[in-house]
Amino acid sequence: MLVSELKSFYAVARCGTVTKAAEQLGVSQPTVTGQLRQLEARYGIELFHRQGRGLQLSAEGERLLPLVERLVQQESEIEFRLRDASDLRGGSLRVGATGPFYIMQTLQRYHERYPGVDVSLAIGNSQAMLAALHDYRIEVATSAYRVDDERLHRQTIAVDPLHVVAHRDHPLARGKLVALTELARHTLLLREPGSMTRQASEALLVEAQVQPRRVLEIGSREAIRQAVLCGLGVSLMPVREVASHPDLLALPLRGIQAQMCEYLYCLCERRPVQAIARFLALAPALA
């Protein structure tokens, strides 16, 4: 009972609300609320301050959180190691990725070699995937962010040049190369703030002192693809992320070697676990 109550406390502390914590734990909101009340009543403490619909950690809750975090991580590690078998004829592997472009071939090879392992793939932004990795909710994660953290093993799995993506009827599609200065006459489609592709695109434009005629913010690769197909503008993308379509063209930048990297991460302490180690071995490891 105590472990369940502490897990509810940890989830609420990380999520900020009972609703989100219950969704993460896969239980009802009354269950989480009841466990928190039982924990506080049993020991006569106050773990949270109620502020509207949100919860703020009390001083006692702040002191307890690091201890519970270690407990949750140890429980996850024990469960994973118990499920892990050296021959990988069973078990599971949870993969997190910012997109399917750089990881699908590795997933295919892994599935073919270890068909008894249940593999799941979660898609989200880089911050969410790295947070899930640290919380032991996934085993490996891909991200375009280069993170220098002694707790993380990192290997480069792709290096991709940035190209201009345009509809084949767009004026820029008349040439084989596009100069950044040409973007000043057109509408540029950018990802949401925090996107590595957006950061790379904006850095190129600032360095070249180019201001597009208009900028539209669009929140996903798929939506940008549709926007380009509908003639709303052009975008900058890693070439491997450009979907195959007869009306889409990926045009190299003239005189610029702009590249983006994709990284594969796991926690260093979990790297020896067979299910993880063999996945890393099957993934590209570029210098």
Structure description:
It comes from Verticiella sediminum. GO terms for molecular function: DNA-binding transcription factor activity; transcription cis-regulatory region binding. Keywords: DNA-binding, Transcription, Transcription regulation. Pfam families: HTH_1, LysR_substrate. Residues 1-58 form the HTH lysR-type domain. By secondary structure, the protein is of the alpha/beta class. It has three domains: 2-68, Orthogonal Bundle (Arc Repressor Mutant, subunit A), CATH 1.10.10.10; 92-157 and 262-282, D-Maltodextrin-Binding Protein, domain 2 (3-Layer(aba) Sandwich), CATH 3.40.190.10; 160-259, Periplasmic binding protein-like II (D-Maltodextrin-Binding Protein, domain 2, 3-Layer(aba) Sandwich), CATH 3.40.190. The protein is 39% helix and 23% strand. It has nine helices and eleven strands. It has helices spanning 2-15, 18-25, 29-43, 59-83, 104-113, 126-134, 196-208, 221-229, 274-282, and strands spanning 48-51, 54-57, 92-97, 118-123, 140-143, 152-167, 187-190, 214-217, 234-238, 248-252, 259-267. Strands 3, 4, 5, 6, 7, 8, 9, 10 and 11 form a nine-stranded mixed sheet that branches. It has a two-stranded antiparallel ribbon with strand order 1-2. Helix 1 (2-15) crosses helix 2 (18-25) and helix 1 crosses helix 3. The mean pLDDT is 90.
